[in-house]
Design brief:
Immunoglobulin-like; mainly beta; Cupredoxin; 536 residues; Ig-like_bact; signal; 45% strand; 5-stranded mixed β-sheet; Ig-like_fold; flat
Length: 536
């Protein structure tokens, strides 16, 4: 066991929010505040006294944060020259559940602490000095425990391990020492293993950083050599149980129960192998439900290392007659969805199977391109992207269902605090006539931006039709008056107001009489007015 000499805390906004600080607060309060600056904290302490302290970190409108920018208060646990015994990491913003104010209880020791903001791009940092407390006159609390394998008389067989623990709530533990069997005291850094046969005594003590030394504690114990005379392997046997048919075969399944005993050193392990597979540890009766002939081999090893001969049982499992119908299997996907139907953060796939004849034997699933594996509990998928889960079931008669599948998309949860809808606009392009009508066709290009969580979807509707996903500029060539409405949604679920673009499309004009025909009519009739009309 490694000695925990000082308080080490890792705190975030969730754990701080759920702890009632009022019942745990120390008399010494150190307050840190943040505002709109990314180069310095609005206020922070420069000195403190060793011992318990309440850390208050507030980054709110009350402390000058008008932008909603989050900051952290993070204690340095790696830079040389500073104390590293307080591991504190608090994230706060005016929009979090605590409105940017958090408290944490720590224990400070003499020396210097460095703190900083861990947000990317922030250069906020500082340090404060902790001086010793003259009020600490209480020595540390120290205790020891002995562990190991015992015999019937309570002696430790082979070896015993002594673990010492010490704590000090004021100045903190400085050193822990122990003495084995009257030898000089030495520094304790890890559990002490004693493997020399005989009676032993371990004395121990601890000193805090204020110089107070605890009274000496003591544990005594006896170590005995492992039994060397055991050369007899364990006794091991197996029994098969289940419902049999007239031929002595087990219907649907058979259960193999293995028993082992050793009158000397005792049984250490029991192992089994089903149908030639590698040996595995036996911890509970083995159920076999696959139709066919089976062999279970088994063996046991005692604590002296003696292994029994391998035993074996053979049996046959059959299916109820007449079952040729595969199981019914289905899957459902659950989770929080965004406006586009994507699962935010994660999706959970639950597979159900039933078989009214021989019963379901196994259910399997495969995620994306992976191979099929056994299904035992709902499958949670939190990797962003499009996913496919395939599934199937096998009954006890060996009938396998067709492979089913479900498809879904997981998206990253939106950044916290985004309540602003995207900016969306549309541009119409094309050739226009003198009346501002678009000749033959008009092209509508829609664009959207979002500075917070980012644009998730853009949608459009032409002439009152249902909204559809916008993926490329729209070309409209049907003559007449048209209205295109459009909108955008960001990854935080904020949807913009609906924009509108209205315009008209007309067909281009063409001459109704070819020029050569008009010329012929003019020559035939010498009709000046006819020629003018053709020119027109």
């Amino acid at each position: 066991m490694v000695l925990l000499a000082t308080a080490a805390l890792w705190l975030n906004s969730t754990t701080l929010h759920t702890q009632p600080a009022a019942t745990q607060a120390a008399a010494q309060v150190l307050t840190f505040t943040g505002n709109d600056s990314i180069t310095a904290y609005a206020s922070a302490p420069t000195t403190a006294t060793a011992g318990p302290a309440t850390i208050v970190f507030e980054n709110s409108a009350a402390t000058g944060n008008t932008t909603g920018m989050p900051h952290t208060l993070t204690f340095d646990t790696s830079t040389p020259g500073y104390n590293h015994d307080v591991d504190l990491n608090i994230t706060a913003s005016p929009y979090d559940p605590n409105k940017g104010r958090y408290e944490a209880q720590v224990n400070l020791t003499p020396g210097k602490y460095r703190y900083f903001c861990a947000m990317a791009g922030h250069q906020m940092s500082g340090e404060f000095v902790v001086t010793g407390s003259a009020a600490d006159t209480t020595p540390p609390q120290v205790s020891a425990s002995v562990t190991g394998d015992k015999d019937a008389a309570g002696n430790y067989v082979g070896s015993a391990t002594v673990t010492i623990s010490a704590q000090d709530t004021e100045s903190g533990v400085d050193t822990v020492e122990y003495s084995l069997d009257g030898q000089p005291f030495t520094a304790y850094s890890s559990p002490v293993t004693v493997n020399q046969p005989g009676q032993h005594m371990v004395h121990y003590r601890a000193k805090d950083k204020a110089g107070n030394t605890s009274p000496e504690g003591m544990v005594s114990f006896t170590v005995v050599a492992p039994p060397a005379q055991d050369k007899t392997p364990p006794q091991v046997s197996a029994q098969v149980s289940g419902t049999k048919d007239g031929a002595g075969n087990y219907v649907n399944s058979a259960t193999v129960t293995i028993s082992a005993s050793d009158a000397e050193s005792g049984v250490a392990t029991v192992e089994y192998s089903l149908d030639g597979q590698p040996y595995a540890a036996y911890t509970a009766p083995v159920a076999v439900n696959q139709p066919g002939k089976h062999t279970v081999n088994y063996r046991a090893t005692d604590k002296a290392g003696n292994t029994s001969n391998v035993g074996a049982v053979e049996f046959t499992v059959t299916s109820p007659p007449g079952d040729t119908t595969a199981p019914q299997v289905s899957a459902a996907v659950a989770g929080d969805k965004d406006a586009s139907g994507n699962y935010v953060g994660s999706a959970t796939v639950t597979i159900s199977a039933q078989d009214s004849e021989s019963g379901v034997a196994t259910v399997e699933y495969a995620l994306d391109q992976a191979t099929f594996v056994g299904y035992s509990a709902p499958v949670s998928v939190n990797q962003p992207g499009q996913h496919t889960v395939r599934y199937r079931a096998t009954d006890k008669a060996g009938n396998v269902s067709a492979v089913g599948s479900v498809q879904f998309t997981v998206v990253t949860p939106p950044a916290p605090g985004d309540t602003t809808a995207p900016q969306v606009s549309a541009v119409i392009a094309g050739s226009m006539d003198w009346a501002w009508n678009y000749v033959d066709s008009a092209t509508v290009t829609i664009s959207a931006t979002d500075a917070g969580s980012g644009v998730a979807t853009i949608e459009y509707s032409v002439d009152g039709q249902a909204f559809a996903a916008y993926t490329a500029p729209l070309t409209i060539n049907q003559p007449g008056r048209h209205t295109v409405t459009y909108r955008a949604t960001d990854k935080a679920g904020n949807t913009s107001a609906v924009g509108t673009a209205s315009f008209s499309v007309v067909k281009s004009k063409s001459k109704t009489k070819p020029a050569d025909r008009c010329e012929k009519e003019h020559n035939d009739h010498k009709d000046h007015d006819k020629k003018r009309n053709c020119d027109d």
